[in-house]
Amino acid sequence: MAKIPDPVFASTEIGKVIEAIPTVEEHFGLIGAGKKPPAVLDCVAMAEPLPEIPYLVRELGMVGGGGAPDLFAGDGYSGKTIALQAALLAMAAEQPIWDAWTAPRSLRVVHVDLEQGKRLTTRRYQRLAAGMGIDLRGYGDRLILSSEAGMTAFKDPDQWLELMDGRNIMVVDSLRALNLGIDENDSRMRESLDWLGAMSGKTGCRVAVVHHARKQSVENSEARYSIRGSGAIYDGVDGAWVFSALKNEPVKVEHVKARSHGDLIEDFSLVISDVPLFDPD
User: Cis peptide before 147, with omega less than 30 degrees from 0?
Assistant: First the structure.
């Protein structure tokens, strides 16, 4: 029977290898100054009572504070953008949102428009204010609008942080415009959502992103599957609501995801009615 040979390296060489293994502190020093070991919860910490969820609007399932963005998706004629404009205006003016639910306090809100342009978006706010009995001049900067062309994800983060600073919620219209040059079926679409979530974590301003959806059909009857693009989009958001409607018909709203609290609200409908525009002068 052949003899198994001894290891080719001596014990002194093994000692040298062991000495070369960095300590935990040295390891984290190697990967960058100021790095800390990952935060973990032990069993004692996990047994502690959980903190209350900081809702923006509890009845809608909308959560505030820093965290992953929310998604509001809808097809054409679903009124998703104007509905969110009305919600922002109501939050700033301490009025019932969609004539149904009120935020617990007056909120400071921001709308980043990358789709409609300043004129159309401003005109819509004027028409909404007229219909809601709100004098826009009386609310100062509780609601601000940015319609700067070319604002995209990862570009000029300081500009995004400045817009979000001191705000409770920011609506971004739309996800596709935010990811200029990336196909919506590409899983990289999630990267911008994660980026906005990181910005939200720094500022405490929750982000709501407007996105497009396919028209629902018999084969595609579940609302969450009507959200266009990569499945990574749905995976990357905290809450998701889907708007659907036929032209000139009430808008159906379905709550399809609630990562933070797990409680989906019941479906409801919105009716969008036009009113004459008041003269702002």
Answer: no
Output the pTM of the full model.
Answer: 0.84
Closest CA to 209 of 68, 64, 54, 53: 68
- Kind plus residue range of the DSSP H or E element containing 211: strand 206-212
Q: Pick from 148, 160, 142: which is nearest to 198 by CA?
A: 160
Q: Is residue 180 a contact partner of residue 152, using CB atoms and an 8 Å limit?
A: yes
Which of 72, 147, 64 has the alpha carbon at shortest distance from 107?
Answer: 64
- pLDDT tens per residue across span 73-117: 999 889 999 999 999 999 999 999 999 998 888 899 999 999 999
Q: What's the length of the chain?
A: 281
Q: Name residues whose C-beta falls within 8 Å of residue 253's C-beta, 6 or more positions apart in sequence.
A: 241, 242, 243, 267, 268, 269, 270
CA distance 171 to 124: 15
Q: Find all residues with CB under 8 Å of 207, minimum gap 6, and list them.
A: 69, 70, 164, 169, 170, 171, 172, 196, 197, 199, 200
Low-confidence ranges of the chain (pLDDT < 70): 1-36, 218-220, 277-281
